[in-house]
Design brief:
This is Thymidylate kinase. One of its GO terms (molecular function) is dTMP kinase activity. Phosphorylation of dTMP to form dTDP in both de novo and salvage pathways of dTTP synthesis. By secondary structure, the protein is α/β, with parallel strands linked by helices. The chain has one domain (about 5-210): Rossmann fold (3-Layer(aba) Sandwich), CATH 3.40.50. Helix content is about 55%, strand content about 10%. It has a five-stranded parallel sheet with strand order 2-3-1-4-5, sandwiched between helices. Helix 1 crosses helix 8, helix 2 runs antiparallel to helix 3 and helix 4 (about 95-105) packs across helix 7. It is globular and about 50 Å long.
Amino acid sequence: MGFFITFEGIEGCGKSTQVRLVAERLSRAGHGVVVTREPGGCPIADAIRAILLDARNSAMVPMAELLLYAAARAQHVAEVIEPALAAGKIVLCDRFTDSTMAYQGFGRKLDRELIAQLNSLAAGSIRPDLTLLLDCSVETGLARAMARINTSSAAREERFEQESILFHERIRDGFLSLAAAEPGRFVVLDGSGGIEETEALVTEAILARLPASPARR
């Protein structure tokens, strides 16, 4: 089996940038790496992502949102993550089940036991070997996220950025609670610094946990 690393955190914490940098570093070292994201990662899940993150869908009720995330994850795991791990690859995933618990459980205040059941149904036996939580203040994260959205030529994925500060504070608290409950899997890193500073922290955390004989091409 391969090695499954997930990157978590609030909006604008720097996950996506660090996933890209880690992938480049590991690939240069000769590792077989698969980079993916949630929601999305394959055509069907990407179509669901477009629905979930479109600000025009503000009328979406929390339960519909939760079920769409579960549907996207089931397809993503079956089509991308499980085959990559079976092939011995290192899988780097921008968000996974912890985001669902933080956003829909702590943020939306949906039943966390139900969310845990849905996460298990969608992910099957797949669990992260290592989860890096990039932590920063809500104000810092949202400012970064909106700056990215406003300068991007891609579709505006901003449904969550338009939520209240209190909503995002609950999410951050949720992530930190999840990390405290599973210290063996989580590594909490300061995501408030610059890209290079954060990259050094991420690299150190991964190299300390990566198996001695990792997957290679």
